[in-house]
């Protein structure tokens, strides 16, 4: 699992900083966010100290993929909510502030707090889309 970084999340995983732990297994650690956007706002963090999702090993990625739904269901049940956001940022320009991969589970309380995102969209250019699709597919091989 690579060299340990000394991020705040590594310190939480190692028990050096206290947390409200929700879940832990060999690859994943989950706890309540200390600055929540809504009640039940939690973080799901791989124990592997990868800085961004593209650096994460397949083993850790698979482990997170297995537990995200499970933890989400538990949070929804506990908060009596039905809607939520999963947020994951990579790099400072994408608003990542702790450089250790992490996923936010943010319950959306009807008429209450939760994630607010002003998405700005524009129509897809079909020629650019075809070119980009070909390039991405080539890079998946």
Can you walk me through this structure?
- The chain is an alpha+beta fold and 141 residues long.
- Helix content is 30%, strand content 18%.
- It has three helices and five strands, in the order αβββαββα.
- The protein has a five-stranded antiparallel sheet, with helices on one face.
- A hairpin with a 3-residue loop joins strand 1 and strand 2.
What's the helix and strand layout?
Blueprint: H1 8-13, E1 21-24, E2 28-32, E3 42-46, H2 58-79, E4 83-87, E5 103-108, H3 126-140
Antiparallel strand pairs: 1-2, 2-3, 3-5, 4-5
Uncertain runs with pLDDT below 50, 5 residues or more?
Answer: none
Q: Kindly report the spatial arrangement of strands forming the biggest sheet.
A: 1-2-3-5-4
CATH class: Alpha Beta
Element pattern in H and E: HEEEHEEH
Distance between the termini: 24 Å
Looking at the overall shape, the CATH architecture is 2-Layer Sandwich
CATH topology heading? HIT family, subunit A
Record field, number of beta strands: 5
Q: Biggest β-sheet: count, sense, barrel?
A: 5 strands, antiparallel
Form type: globular
Quickly count the domains.
Answer: 1
CATH superfamily: HIT-like
